[in-house]
Every structure is written in structure tokens, then in C-alpha cells.
Batch of 4 targets.
Target 1
Amino acid sequence: MNLTAQLAKQLRTAYSGGNWTGVCLKDALTGLTWQQATKQVNSFNTIAKLVYHINYYVGPISSVLQGVPLAAHDKYSFDCPPITSEKDWEELVNKLWADGENLASLIEKLPDSKLEEIFADEKYGTYLRNITGVVEHIHYHLGQIILIKKLIL
């Protein structure tokens, strides 16, 4: 298996399971209501905001893999639209699944040699750094989601 296929698999397991950590977004989010996802605990971000934030970076990375210039700004990464119904919550989660699979498919199509190239701008490092970084980012916030979920359930 080439490296890009392994990276795509690693990304997919963060979403759906089978990874080394034993946790995944699917298990953490399944069965959560919109009220639970938007419940404020202390000064923590809500689960819904964390889901939005996780997915915020997936789209721009996917765009760069498709040859589109990078267009993302950290200051907007927690600007989750209001979640006021089960439909709103389901749309946010469904977008998470679709965008994650899209990114995994794009990663699989990359030749391994692309991983050493500069990603969008030299200050962002290589494609490899950004792809592994998005997986690390998912796991980091997944841990927060799991802890918040334990506090609200």
C-alpha cells in the first residue's frame, strides 16, 4: 500500500473507527441530539462548534488538492451556524461525513511524490504535514467531544 492510500485510510478511521486510539467521530456523535450537541458546559466549546471547527479545515485542504488556492482563515473556524433543530444538526454532521470522505478520496489519488511538495504556501509546509495535521486535529478535538459528551450525558 502506498503512503497516500495509508493516509487516506488513517483519515477514514478517524471518522468511522478501526484506528489505534479506539475512538472515532461516528461513535462519538451517533445518537446525540441537537440539544446535547449545543449544550454549553462551562466555557468549553459546544460539540456542534467542535464538529464545525473540525470540518472547517477539511474543505480548504480538499480545495488545494483540487488545484484551488487556499482560502481559509483561522478567525472563522469556530463560526458555526446556529443549530436550532434536529435538521440543522443532521445537516452539519452529514456535511462532516461527506467532506471527510471527499478528502480521503482526493488523498488516495495523490502520487506519493506530491507529499514532499509545498502545500499552497511555504509557511504551511508540505502536503504531508497538512494531511497528517488534519488527522491529528480531528483526534485532538475528538477527545474534547468525548469529554464534553461524558459531562452532558
Note: The chain has one domain: 3-152.
Target 2
Amino acid sequence: MLGITETGMSEIEMYTKGFCPYCIAAKHLLKKKPLVFKEVPIDRNPDLRAEMIQRSGRSTVPQIFINGDSIGGYSEMSALEQSGQLDLLLATG
């Protein structure tokens, strides 16, 4: 598990593909907050795609992890944002 970074911020990872509209929307939402995240492009690396599937149990992108825990894709993150739960999740780490 990744846990909280040294700066006290949650660790956010997102597996993406270049021309995925949901990936673009997810990045936009995180940048709007503004949050720092690690992007893991899987377009040209089958090993990273396999890693994403193994970690999340899903084959669609984006796959988003906060502090090592899978929260799902853009739809799930957007629902968390609209309900106010995303900020709580990020704050509690």
C-alpha cells in the first residue's frame, strides 16, 4: 500500500490510454482540485496493462488508485466528487 506521501498528501495513481475521453476527464477533474497524481500510460506496454488488471480486477481505463486502493474509473470518481466523498477520501488517506 502506498499510503500518505511525505508532504501529507494522498498518493494518486491513474492508469490511462492516450485518446481515452474518460482518462482526459479524470485528469481534468484531478487537476481542477488541484491534485498531483502519477499517470501510468498503458498504451504501449502490455506489462503495465496486466499490472492494472491484476491490481484493479478491471480491464477498462482509467483505473484510479488512492493510497493504493482502487476507487474504479472516471464514473466512480465523478460520483465520489459529486457526493463530497472524494475530498473526504483524499483527506483521510
Note: Residues 1-6 have pLDDT under 50 and may be disordered.
Target 3
Amino acid sequence: MEDPKELKESLKGEKNKVKKLEKELRIKEKALAETAALLVLRKKANAIWGDQKEE
């Protein structure tokens, strides 16, 4: 059996790691949503005003 103190420290470390990864995932999800929104807006703008490359 392992020392309960070591297990507690290990668990704390793992919880911190999970928390950090969840934060990173939230940031990446927000960036992905923003990129998708910008692509949709670009597509709509091109449909309304035409593609700038055509001029």
C-alpha cells in the first residue's frame, strides 16, 4: 500500500492538471467558435457585396 500522503499529493497534482487542460480546451473552443463565426460573416458579406478579388 502506498502512503496516503503521497496519494493525496498525487491526486492534487492530477486535479491541477485536469483543471489546466479544461481551461486550455475552453480557450481553444472559443477560438474555434470565433473563427467559424468570422467565416460565416465573410461568406455572407461576399454574397451581399460580391467578392473583392473579382474587381
Note: The CA atoms of residues 25 and 31 lie 10 Å apart.
Target 4
Amino acid sequence: MEKNRETFGSRFAVIMAMAGSAIGLGNIWRFPYMAGEYGGAAFIIVYIVASLVLAMPIFFAESVIGRRSGSGTFGAMEKLAPGTRWKWLGFLTVLSPIIILSYYSVVGGWSVEYLFKSFDFAGMTEGDVTGFFGKFISSVQMPILAHTAFLLLVAGVVLGGVRKGIEQFTKITMPILFVLIVIIAVYGLSLPGSGKGVEYLVRPDFSKLTPSTVTAAMGQAFFSLSLGVGTILTYASYMKKDENILASGLGTAFFDLFFAILAGFAVMPAVFAAGIAPGAGPGIVFETLPFIFNKMGTASPLLSTGISFLFFFTILAAALTSAISMMEVGVAYLTEEKGMRRRTAVLLITLFAWVVGILCSLSFGPLSGVRILGNGIFDFLDKLCSNWLLPLGGLLFTIFVGWKMKPSDVYDEFTNGGTLKANRAVFKTVLLLIRFVAPAGIIAVFVSLLV
């Protein structure tokens, strides 16, 4: 590791940064509607098991590579497998998060717009509320301005570096996020009729447990922990050598699972209280919840505005913590491999994501007729990354650690030179999961997509 390379200051900082990378739109936006579509409690049980058995081994694999190499994704492959084709894995996991950042920042921009729109939902007509989302995303100026504002917020944090930027932001933001989601969940549980939403989330109906439910839960576990794109690897490269990879990984997984389930309790009880079907789909946050806030406004406009503001502020903060980790992957590559100053690297990544993001935003409006393999620009990039590049990156990371690296090197990194008793005790199990179980799970996801 380079002498002047920054590291995180403490285990708490590591866990908050990695949890920030994991906790994003996948938890507060994607998880509730996935649980709604795939049977509630039954889906959640499979999701928890998949997170521990499938996702955690990939998380450990990325962590081992990152801290062992002390480099970002491209440099890690060059150091641990010099002169081999594994460098293409490094290139893949530099490119993927930058592409994801481009369209992710468009959705992040939606949360910026909805944060300010929170002050209006209570006073709008039902027709205006239900039609607002479609009108907004299909317009030109406002979505691009919101996308730009979101990217500038991300760039501002990354510009501060590891300690003064990422660490300070996540150490402050993540505890606030948990407090906010608890407040929203408590309020949702207090609404008349919310009990049916709670029952939906805690009482499993295993008759709804189909193969598609299992693969969807596996995919959500993979997506939720921000795996396969090098963000965990990059953050692990900023770990100190005495940090415990097992403890940091389990801490991150706990916070990620806990937040996702809290998000479910923040959304589903309110959805049931409003008499809306739980399988409302991806629009449940940006279309269904504003409708609920509007209904609340007839009884208490001030309370409606307050809860709406807190909810969309939580979405914005969660989106920011994930987007920051995506940008950092590309910045680490440009600073470490190309010798750029951090300021220049942040500027270049921001410009790239801004231009591609504009095309993604316009794909809901003026460029809606542009199709790539039958999909709009936004949907094409989303499916390319979420369905193929992320799982492919995760599969290759597990193969690299499980079969390319020397078991003695993996053991040395995972156990801190054999000094951690608990890590020694579980090492063989973790290596077994990395070598066989996680790759099998990822291949199952690929097969389900093809079918």
C-alpha cells in the first residue's frame, strides 16, 4: 500500500462507509416493492438467507482482494494477478459503477425534486398527484437540473477524499438515516388499517414461494449489498491492516438488512392503510406514496408535509451514500493508475456521468423513441448493469478468490495473519461458500434471467 494512501480511521467508519455504499435506493425503493410483488414475509425470509449465504461470501471476496492489494479494482488485479487476463475484471468493475452512477443520479435527481415537492402534495388534487410523476420525468429541464444537483452533491463529498469526505459524510449521515426511517416506520404503523401491512410482512405464506420468488430474493440480496461493481473492494482497500474483515462484513450486512426491513415497515403499512395493492411495483415510492401523503393532507396538512419531507429526505440521503461509493471507484482508478489529481478525476467522472445521465433522463421524454435491443436508454443501461454486469463481476470475484489466489493468502488476509480466533474458526466454511455456493447462486440468477 502506498505510504500516502488514505485509510478509514476506525471500524465504525469502515462499517458506516460500507453500509452507506450498500444502503441506497435498493433498500428504500426497490426492497418494499419487491417484497410487495413477491409475497411479503416469504420473500423476506429467502432474502435474509440469501444475504447471509450468497451475498456475504461475495462481500468477503471483494474485501480480501481490496485490502490485500491496497488498490482500487484495476490496480488490485494488476497487483494480485500481474500479466494475466484478470485485468479485464478490473476494467469491468471500473466501468460498471460509472455507468450505474450515470442513470442512478437521474433517480437521485427525482428524490431532489420530490423533496421540494413535499410542500405541495397536501394541497394538490388527486389527479395532479397521480399524474405528476409521468409529467415530471417526461419533461426536459427540471429532471436534468435535479440530476445535475444530485451529481454535484456527490462530487462535493468525494472531492473531500476518504477521511474528510466519505468518512465524515457517512459517519454523520448513516445514524441520521436510521433515526429518520424509524420515525417514518412508527408513523406508518400508527395509521388506521396498517395492521394488514404488518401481517403481510411478518406472516409468511409459503404457498407464494415460487422459483421466481427465490431468484428475485437472491437478486435483491446481491443488488442490496452493492456487490460486483468494485465499491466494496475499493472501500476495503482503505481498511487498515489490523481491521477485522469478518466483523466489518457482518456489521455491514446487519445494517443493510435492518434498514431494508425498516423501509418495508415504513412503506407497506401506509400502502395497506390507503387501500392500495402491495404489488404496485416500482412506482410505489414516487407515485403511490405521494398519493398517500395527499390523502393525509385532508386531515392534517402540516403533518402530511412533515412526513413527506422526512421520507424523501431519507431517500435522497440513502441515494447519495451509494452514489458516492460508485464515483469513488472511478476516482480511485484515475488517481492511482493515471496519476491524476483527485480534483481532476472527480471532474472527469462527474462530466461523464452527467452527459450519459442526460441521455437517460431524456429517454423518458424527447428520446423515448430511441430503442436499444427493445429498451429505452435508461432501461437498457439499468438491465445491462443490474442483470448482467453486477452478477458477472460478483461471479468473477468469487472465482478469483476461491480458485486463483493461494488459500494461504486468503487465510492470511481473512484472519489477520492467523491472529483472529473467530475468523480462523469459520474460514473453511467461508472459503467453501466463496468457491461453490456463491457461484452456484449467481449462475442460478443468470439462468432465471435467460428463462
Note: The chain has one domain: 11-450.
